[in-house]
Amino acid sequence: MSSRIWKGIAVIVAVIAVAFVFQRLFGDKTEVGAVQVPDPVAVIGSGEDAVAVTAGGAVVRWWPLEEAPALPLLPLSEPPKGGHLAGPMLQQARVLGAAPPALRPYLAASHYGESGVDVETTSGIELRFGDASLAPQKWKAAAAILADPEITALDYVDLSAPARPAYGGSGHTLPPAP
Questions:
Q1: How far apart are CA 91 and CA 111, in angstroms?
Q2: Disulfide: which of 15, 25, 108, 153 matches 170 by Cβ 3.0-4.6 Å?
Q3: What is the CATH classification number for the domain harbouring 106?
Q4: What pLDDT digit, counting tens, does each position of 82-122 carry?
Q5: Range of the domain at 82
Q6: Does residue 11 belong to any structural domain of this protein?
Q7: Residue 109 and residue 70: Cα distance in Å, rounded?
Q8: Considering its fold, how many domains does the chain have in total?
Q9: What is the dihedral of CA 145, 147, 176, 178, to 10 degrees?
Q10: What is the pTM of this model?
Q11: Is 61 within a domain?
Protein backbone atom coordinates (compact mmCIF):
# COMPACT_ATOMS: atom_id res chain seq x y z
CA MET A 1 0.00 0.00 0.00
CA SER A 2 1.09 3.44 -0.73
CA SER A 3 1.80 6.03 1.89
CA ARG A 4 -1.13 8.02 0.55
CA ILE A 5 -3.60 5.23 1.50
CA TRP A 6 -1.99 4.95 4.94
CA LYS A 7 -2.35 8.67 5.45
CA GLY A 8 -6.04 8.45 4.44
CA ILE A 9 -6.66 5.62 6.88
CA ALA A 10 -4.86 7.57 9.62
CA VAL A 11 -7.03 10.62 8.95
CA ILE A 12 -10.23 8.51 9.14
CA VAL A 13 -9.11 6.88 12.40
CA ALA A 14 -8.23 10.31 13.81
CA VAL A 15 -11.65 11.72 12.83
CA ILE A 16 -13.43 8.77 14.45
CA ALA A 17 -11.33 9.14 17.61
CA VAL A 18 -12.04 12.88 17.82
CA ALA A 19 -15.77 12.26 17.25
CA PHE A 20 -15.77 9.63 20.00
CA VAL A 21 -13.98 11.92 22.47
CA PHE A 22 -16.24 14.85 21.53
CA GLN A 23 -19.36 12.70 22.12
CA ARG A 24 -18.06 11.53 25.51
CA LEU A 25 -17.20 15.05 26.61
CA PHE A 26 -20.05 17.08 25.15
CA GLY A 27 -22.72 14.58 24.18
CA ASP A 28 -26.20 14.29 25.61
CA LYS A 29 -25.83 14.18 29.38
CA THR A 30 -29.50 13.57 30.02
CA GLU A 31 -29.98 10.72 32.43
CA VAL A 32 -33.29 9.02 32.63
CA GLY A 33 -34.16 8.31 36.22
CA ALA A 34 -37.18 7.56 38.26
CA VAL A 35 -38.51 10.00 40.79
CA GLN A 36 -39.56 8.15 43.89
CA VAL A 37 -42.59 9.68 45.48
CA PRO A 38 -42.80 8.77 49.16
CA ASP A 39 -45.77 6.67 50.17
CA PRO A 40 -47.30 8.28 53.26
CA VAL A 41 -48.63 5.91 55.91
CA ALA A 42 -49.64 8.28 58.72
CA VAL A 43 -50.21 11.92 59.53
CA ILE A 44 -49.06 14.22 62.32
CA GLY A 45 -51.32 17.13 63.20
CA SER A 46 -54.44 18.32 61.45
CA GLY A 47 -55.61 20.96 59.05
CA GLU A 48 -53.06 23.16 57.33
CA ASP A 49 -50.34 22.20 59.81
CA ALA A 50 -50.63 18.46 59.10
CA VAL A 51 -47.67 16.60 57.65
CA ALA A 52 -47.40 13.06 56.32
CA VAL A 53 -44.98 10.38 57.49
CA THR A 54 -43.49 7.48 55.51
CA ALA A 55 -43.02 3.92 56.74
CA GLY A 56 -39.34 4.69 57.22
CA GLY A 57 -40.18 7.60 59.52
CA ALA A 58 -39.42 10.48 57.14
CA VAL A 59 -41.63 13.54 57.52
CA VAL A 60 -43.11 14.70 54.20
CA ARG A 61 -44.11 18.32 54.60
CA TRP A 62 -45.14 18.97 51.00
CA TRP A 63 -47.58 16.07 50.68
CA PRO A 64 -50.99 17.37 49.49
CA LEU A 65 -53.00 15.98 52.41
CA GLU A 66 -56.31 17.40 51.23
CA GLU A 67 -56.08 15.18 48.13
CA ALA A 68 -54.65 12.13 49.90
CA PRO A 69 -56.72 9.32 51.32
CA ALA A 70 -57.42 9.44 55.05
CA LEU A 71 -54.30 8.43 56.94
CA PRO A 72 -54.03 7.19 60.53
CA LEU A 73 -53.06 9.80 63.08
CA LEU A 74 -49.82 9.57 65.06
CA PRO A 75 -50.01 11.02 68.60
CA LEU A 76 -47.66 13.96 68.15
CA SER A 77 -48.63 17.61 68.41
CA GLU A 78 -45.93 18.60 65.91
CA PRO A 79 -43.39 16.84 63.68
CA PRO A 80 -39.91 16.13 65.03
CA LYS A 81 -37.43 18.94 64.41
CA GLY A 82 -34.98 16.68 62.57
CA GLY A 83 -37.61 15.63 60.04
CA HIS A 84 -37.43 11.93 60.99
CA LEU A 85 -39.25 9.83 63.56
CA ALA A 86 -37.39 7.78 66.16
CA GLY A 87 -38.23 5.38 68.98
CA PRO A 88 -41.87 4.42 69.53
CA MET A 89 -43.09 6.78 66.78
CA LEU A 90 -40.82 5.10 64.24
CA GLN A 91 -42.11 1.70 65.39
CA GLN A 92 -45.66 2.92 64.75
CA ALA A 93 -44.77 4.21 61.27
CA ARG A 94 -43.17 0.86 60.39
CA VAL A 95 -46.25 -1.06 61.53
CA LEU A 96 -48.57 1.26 59.59
CA GLY A 97 -46.34 1.00 56.52
CA ALA A 98 -46.73 -2.78 56.50
CA ALA A 99 -50.54 -2.60 56.53
CA PRO A 100 -52.20 -4.24 53.52
CA PRO A 101 -53.70 -1.67 51.13
CA ALA A 102 -57.18 -3.16 51.62
CA LEU A 103 -57.06 -2.44 55.37
CA ARG A 104 -55.54 1.06 55.23
CA PRO A 105 -58.87 2.91 54.82
CA TYR A 106 -60.02 1.36 58.11
CA LEU A 107 -57.08 2.54 60.22
CA ALA A 108 -57.82 5.58 62.39
CA ALA A 109 -54.84 6.10 64.68
CA SER A 110 -51.83 4.58 66.31
CA HIS A 111 -50.32 4.91 69.76
CA TYR A 112 -47.66 3.27 71.85
CA GLY A 113 -49.03 1.71 75.01
CA GLU A 114 -48.15 -0.97 77.54
CA SER A 115 -48.39 -3.66 74.86
CA GLY A 116 -46.24 -1.69 72.40
CA VAL A 117 -47.63 -0.45 69.08
CA ASP A 118 -51.42 -0.34 69.03
CA VAL A 119 -53.43 0.56 65.93
CA GLU A 120 -57.05 1.58 66.27
CA THR A 121 -59.49 0.84 63.46
CA THR A 122 -62.21 3.29 62.45
CA SER A 123 -64.74 1.04 64.22
CA GLY A 124 -62.75 1.16 67.48
CA ILE A 125 -61.05 -2.25 67.44
CA GLU A 126 -57.53 -2.14 68.87
CA LEU A 127 -54.86 -4.12 67.01
CA ARG A 128 -51.97 -4.81 69.39
CA PHE A 129 -48.70 -5.42 67.56
CA GLY A 130 -46.08 -5.34 70.29
CA ASP A 131 -43.09 -4.11 68.27
CA ALA A 132 -42.67 -3.62 64.52
CA SER A 133 -40.87 -6.92 63.98
CA LEU A 134 -42.77 -9.35 61.76
CA ALA A 135 -45.26 -6.58 60.91
CA PRO A 136 -46.32 -8.14 57.56
CA GLN A 137 -47.09 -11.48 59.25
CA LYS A 138 -48.95 -9.68 62.04
CA TRP A 139 -51.07 -7.83 59.48
CA LYS A 140 -51.90 -11.13 57.75
CA ALA A 141 -53.07 -12.53 61.09
CA ALA A 142 -55.14 -9.39 61.72
CA ALA A 143 -56.74 -9.61 58.29
CA ALA A 144 -57.62 -13.27 58.84
CA ILE A 145 -59.37 -12.49 62.12
CA LEU A 146 -61.16 -9.43 60.77
CA ALA A 147 -62.35 -11.43 57.75
CA ASP A 148 -63.60 -14.40 59.78
CA PRO A 149 -67.39 -14.55 59.21
CA GLU A 150 -67.93 -16.19 62.62
CA ILE A 151 -66.51 -13.15 64.43
CA THR A 152 -69.03 -10.33 64.36
CA ALA A 153 -67.73 -8.02 67.10
CA LEU A 154 -64.62 -7.66 69.24
CA ASP A 155 -62.56 -5.14 71.18
CA TYR A 156 -58.96 -6.14 70.51
CA VAL A 157 -56.69 -8.43 68.54
CA ASP A 158 -53.32 -9.28 70.09
CA LEU A 159 -50.84 -9.86 67.28
CA SER A 160 -47.62 -9.96 69.28
CA ALA A 161 -47.32 -13.67 68.36
CA PRO A 162 -48.62 -13.70 64.75
CA ALA A 163 -48.78 -17.49 64.57
CA ARG A 164 -51.13 -17.48 67.59
CA PRO A 165 -53.13 -14.24 67.60
CA ALA A 166 -55.57 -13.71 70.44
CA TYR A 167 -58.74 -11.66 70.39
CA GLY A 168 -61.61 -10.84 72.66
CA GLY A 169 -64.46 -8.57 73.57
CA SER A 170 -67.66 -7.73 71.80
CA GLY A 171 -67.91 -3.96 72.05
CA HIS A 172 -67.00 -3.00 68.49
CA THR A 173 -68.34 -4.21 65.18
CA LEU A 174 -66.01 -5.19 62.42
CA PRO A 175 -65.30 -2.69 59.65
CA PRO A 176 -67.28 -3.31 56.45
CA ALA A 177 -65.68 -5.55 53.86
CA PRO A 178 -63.74 -3.63 51.19
A1: 10
A2: 153
A3: 3.40.50
A4: 999 999 999 999 999 999 999 999 999 999 999 999 999 99
A5: 40-173
A6: no
A7: 11
A8: 1
A9: 130
A10: 0.76
A11: yes
